[in-house]
């Protein structure tokens, strides 16, 4: 549909330009009629859901409105200026260039068919922002207390008690990075809280609608460390990532304690009134997975944790003699590591059994690992659906993006059902997806 809209509008502008040159007339009236008709057609398509409206179409609608207003004003002017081919050509070029610019959101974020939740519950959402008075925000110039924002997804019901699951996003992620996973879990009877690590998240919008973008120094260091090949800087990286982990685990601890406090109030509101605080799970993607795993190790009220393609940095407890020292205390919480193929194979090749996740799993009381063949790091987020172009640039594999998300959701649900709802041992396979499957973006 994106290409149809693009082609039709370019043809419309070209036709108007052609007839303008042929008749030596700016054709203000004809342009007003054409833009009005095209706008009306789009509105009808949006209204009938043939073309679902979204933010992607806002710049295009503004472009059409602007073209209509400009030509309408010129049409109403009494003074008629002589027709000039050069000026007409400039107007045409400007119109086409601004049109292409308005279609950038459609190119970067093309419409797609959403993944429908498979559970029996409808899903509702709420956002809360809490202030941790015990901590100063290291990213605040005014040395203000740390704010933590969380988006809840929960079953639309006023009856029953449901397990709590808290999600932590990756270094370049945001609280909505795994929206379809949250919807799937909530539809099956879970209360999911997706935390936004302010200034670590790509962006955070709190309940006052204040926008906070990711700290530039954090982003720069994250990019640098992600591509680092110099082993001489391992100790420096160890200390930097420790700071990141401390910030994030403190965020999760604070959020969990706050949620538990809400459930103990005299008349807890939604979603707190729905919570079974005897069943708590944590999961996260990338750095968020590492933070979730470390928080679970530090608490005695977490019953299961899932790491989505993240290195368990919390297992690194010290740095001695030129290498990290791993925690030799058995990992105490049921653990599931889900790895992209490139991450898994790279860890085997470079570190083997001494890789953080492999070591933790080998010494855990209850741990499982699985590999998604043909996937890359961002296949464990919704980005490949929302923006295939960006996902391709940032790191996905050859596997079908939609299948990877659906399969991930299935095993996440399977694992949490086992440990948070006592539905028997989880049936997690060693591998998923066929590496020969090609992406369909």
UniProtKB/TrEMBL annotation:
Statement: the UniProt record of this protein carries the keyword Lipid metabolism: yes
BP terms from Gene Ontology: lipid catabolic process
Domain of life: Bacteria
Listed InterPro entries: AB_hydrolase_fold
Bilayer-crossing regions: 6-21, 33-51, 57-76, 88-109
Gene Ontology MF terms in the entry: 1-alkyl-2-acetylglycerophosphocholine esterase activity
Keywords: Hydrolase, Lipid degradation, Lipid metabolism, Membrane, Transmembrane, Transmembrane helix
Keyword Lipid metabolism: yes
Pfam families reported in the protein's UniProt record: PAF-AH_p_II
Name of the protein in question: Platelet-activating factor acetylhydrolase, isoform II
Organism whose genome encodes this protein: Proteiniclasticum ruminis
């Amino acid at each position: 549909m994106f290409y149809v809209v693009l082609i039709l509008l370019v043809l419309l502008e070209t036709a108007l330009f052609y007839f303008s040159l042929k008749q030596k007339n700016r054709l203000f009236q004809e342009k007003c009629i054409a833009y009005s008709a095209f706008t009306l057609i789009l509105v009808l398509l949006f209204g009938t859901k043939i073309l679902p409206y979204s933010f992607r179409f806002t710049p295009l609608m503004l472009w059409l409105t602007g073209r209509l207003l400009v030509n309408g004003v010129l049409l109403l002017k009494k003074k008629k200026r002589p027709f000039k081919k050069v000026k007409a050509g400039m107007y045409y070029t400007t119109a086409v260039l601004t049109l292409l610019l308005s279609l950038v959101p459609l190119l970067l974020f093309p419409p797609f068919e959403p993944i429908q939740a498979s559970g029996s519950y409808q899903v509702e959402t709420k956002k809360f922002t809490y202030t941790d008075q015990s901590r100063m925000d290291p990213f605040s110039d005014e040395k203000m207390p740390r704010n933590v924002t969380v988006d809840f997804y929960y079953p639309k019901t006023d009856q029953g008690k449901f397990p709590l699951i808290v999600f932590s996003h990756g270094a370049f992620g945001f609280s909505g990075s795994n929206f379809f996973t949250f919807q799937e879990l909530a539809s099956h009877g879970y209360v999911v809280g997706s935390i936004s690590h302010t200034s670590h998240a790509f962006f955070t919008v709190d309940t006052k609608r204040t926008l906070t973008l990711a700290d530039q120094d954090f982003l720069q260091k994250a990019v640098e460390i992600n591509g680092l090949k110099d082993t001489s800087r391992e100790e420096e990286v160890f200390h930097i990532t420790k700071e990141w982990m401390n910030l994030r685990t403190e965020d999760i601890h604070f959020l969990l304690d706050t949620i538990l406090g809400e459930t103990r109030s005299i008349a807890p509101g939604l979603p707190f009134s729905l919570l079974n605080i005897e069943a708590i799970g944590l999961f996260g993607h990338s750095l968020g997975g590492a933070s979730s795993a470390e928080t679970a190790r530090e608490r005695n009220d977490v019953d299961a944790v899932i790491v989505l393609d993240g290195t368990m940095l919390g297992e690194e407890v010290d740095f001695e003699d030129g290498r990290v020292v791993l925690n030799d205390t058995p990992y105490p919480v049921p653990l599931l590591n889900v790895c992209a193929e490139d991450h898994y194979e790279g860890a085997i090749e470079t570190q083997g059994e001494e890789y953080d996740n492999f070591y933790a799993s080998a010494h855990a009381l209850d741990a499982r690992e699985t590999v998604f063949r043909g996937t890359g790091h961002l296949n464990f987020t919704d980005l490949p659906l929302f923006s295939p172009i960006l996902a391709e640039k940032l790191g996905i594999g050859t596997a079908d993006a939609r299948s990877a998300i659906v399969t991930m959701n299935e095993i996440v649900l399977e694992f949490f059902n086992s440990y948070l709802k006592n539905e028997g041992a989880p049936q997690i396979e060693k591998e998923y997806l066929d590496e020969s499957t090609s992406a369909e973006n």
